[in-house]
Design a protein that fits this description.
heterodimer, A: alpha+beta, Ubiquitin-like (UB roll), Fumarate Reductase Iron-sulfur Protein, Chain B, domain 2, 11 helices, 7 strands, about 35% helix, elongated, B: about 280 residues, mainly alpha, 3 helical TM bundles of succinate and fumarate reductases
Amino acid sequence: MSTHTPVDPAAIARMANRKTAKAGRTVIFRIKRCDGPGKPSYWQDFKVQVPKNANVISCLQQIALSPVTTGGQPSTPVVWESGCLEEVCGSCTMVINGSVRQSCSCLIDDYAPSEGDTLTLEPMSKFPVVRDLWVDRARLFNNLKRVKAWVPIDGTYASGSGPKESPEDQETRYVLSTCMSCGCCLEACPQFNVEADESKWNTDFIGAHAISQARLFNMHETGKRLAAERLEALSGAGGVSDCGNAQNCVKVCPKRIPLTESIAAMGRAVVFHKVKQFFNR
Amino acid sequence: MTTVPASAATAAAPGFLEKHHFLLRRLHSLTGIVPIGVFLVAHLVTNSSLAWGKFGLRGEHAELGLQGGGAYYFQKEVAWINNEVPHLLLIEITLWAAIAFHSIFGVYYALQGKNNIARYSYQGNKRYALQRISGYFGILFIFYHIATLRWGWSFLVPGGTAWDHKFAVSTLATALRGGESFTAAGVAVSIFYFLGISLLVFHFANGIWTAAITWGLTISRQAQERWGYVCAALGAGLMLAAWSALIGALAISPADARKSEELFNKGKGAAIVAPAGPNTAPNIR
C-alpha cells in the first residue's frame, strides 16, 4: 500500500520551463519587506541577472551584493533565514508566487523562464515576522511540545536497550520522521491562523505537523510510553478534532508526508482513547 | 491515570467548551448524520414522489396524469406521516434541537477557520470553503422552510399562504409561486429553494466524507478516495431526488393539485365515515 501523495501537477508543469529558460535573463524579484517585529510591511522590486539553475537563495545573495531597487533607490540587503540549502532543515520556507515552499530548492528557471518575468517572495503569514522574509516559528515548536513529540529516555539510571521495532512499523514511520518542521502545512492550513496571544497557543489548532509527529512517536516502541498523554493533548481544545479536512497540508508538504492519513489515524486513536477513558476512569 | 503536565496546571481553569471539547466536537459530527442526515434522506425521497408518484399508484387514478398522480401520491404520504407516525411532535422537536445544535456549533467552529482558496485552489480546499458556505446558507434556508411551512409564519410567504398537511401540494405550490400563478417574489422563493436544497445535499455528502476521516474510519489515502466515490454517488442520488421534488412542486398548478388532494381526502373521508361497512372508498393502496 502506497501512502505517498502524488506530486502536484502544477510543479511538474513548472519543471518543463527549465528547458526553455535562458541564462543571463533579467528577473524581477518582488519582495514583501518588513523592518522589524510589529513594523508595517512594504513591497520592493529588485532586478537580478539570473544564471542557469539559480535558486531563490543565490538570487537573494546577488541582491545583497548591490541592494538597489528597480526604481534605482539604494536599499538594504533582504534578510532571510536558511540553513542546509538542500531542503532538509526547513528554515528557508517562504511564500513564493503565492504558494509556500522552501526557497533553497526553488529554481528560478521553473518559475520565471522568460526575460522580465516576476517572482514574488513573501514571508510566511502565519508566524510573526522577525525581518523581511525571516519569521519566528516558536509556535510550531510549542505545538510539538504539546504532544511530547519525543522518545522519553531521560532518567537517573540506564534503562537498557529498548524493545525491537517491526519492519512494517518502521516503513510507515520512516516517511513521518522526515518532517523538518518547516511550517508549510501550517501556512497552507485554513484552520491554523495568526495568534499573537501566546496564552492561547495551547488551545488553538495544533497543526498537521504535530498530529503527524504524535503518530510517529506513538508508533515507536519506547515512544509509546507517552501515548496516552499525547492522545489526551490531541483530544483537547485545538487538537485533532479541529482539523477542517481542507487537506492543503498534504498538498504543500515538501517531504510528501501523508499528513491527512496521520490526522485520520490519530482521529481513530483519540476515539478509542476517549471511549476507554469513559469506561475506565 | 496520566499525569497532568505542569504547564496545564498553571493555566486558567478551562471553561465548559474547552473541558468538553472532544464530546461537543463529536456530537456536532454525529448530529449531522443522525438524526439530521437520516431525516434529510427520508425527507428528500418522500418529496421526490411529487415527480414520480404516478408510478407509485400503479395504474390507479390514471386520469390524474403524471403531475396529478404525483400530487395524489405525495398527499397520501403526507397523510400517512401526519396520521400514522407515532410521537410525531417528539420526533420533530428532536430534529429541531439537533439542527439548532449542529447550526450553532457549526457556525462557532466555522468562524475559527479562515478560508484561503484564493491562494490554495485545491479541490479539497474548495470543498472546505463550500462546506462552510453551504452551512451558513443552509441555516437560513432551513429556518425559512420550517418557519413558513411548519410553524405557519405565513407573513414570510409571498401571497401569505399557510401550509396545510391536508392540502400538502396546493399550499406548497402557492407558497413557492407566491400565489396561484408565479409572481416575482415567488420566483425568488423558488430560486432560494433550489439553492438551499442543492447546497444542503452537498453539505451532507461532503460531511459524511469528512466525518469518516474525523472518526478515523478512512485512514489511507486510497480509503478516503474510495469512500469519496461512495459519498459522491450518494450526493448525486440525493441531488436528483431534491431537484425532482422541486420540479414536481413547481410544475403542478395549485388548482390541479387541489383536484388530486380533494380526490384523496374524499376517499379517506369515506373510509373514516364507514369503517365497518363494505369498503366503498376508492382503493387507497
